Amino acid sequence: MNSDLINFDPIIKKLESWYEDILDMTPNFILAIVVLIVSVFLAKFVRNFIQRILDRTYHNAELTRIISKIVRIAVIVAGMMMALSILHLDKTVTSILAGAGIVGLALSFAFQDIAANFVSGFFMAANRPFEIGDVIEVKGYIGSVLRINLRSTEIMIFDGNEVIIPNRYLFENPLTNYYRTKNR
Known about the structure:
By secondary structure, the protein is of the alpha+beta class. It has helices spanning 9-57, 61-86, 90-110, 112-127, 167-172; strands spanning 135-138, 141-148, 152-157, 162-166, 176-177.
């Protein structure tokens, strides 16, 4: 009759082992949560600090917003990586970073044109080769700048039509700004 009974000893030992691991890791878990909370508050502080510096330097709200958002995300991601490291999940951190690298590479090929326009818009926002209202010429289009976005610039050409020019073309091709020098 004893042979018909199920032996629960291995299961009980495994459950006890898990329980002991949970008790041992509780301080690390609490510390990891504290690190996450601190990183979120630190990210907000750093974002505001970067915004103030960039507002004084570039006077470009869109550029300031994008850079401060990137910095905020970077601080939070760093906090998450530290929290995972505190939980002894270093292999998970490595796997996440490797996966992010592969996904980033795949997305860079898939969205190459969008990324080129975005990066060009970012550099144009920093260098400011023209401003809203300036008359510019690029790729055969001459007109007044209506809007400058991170991916494209809208100009009103002299026949009354709006032309949307990808920022990559403005960055890679010769650009004439007729308002930069007031003399003709």
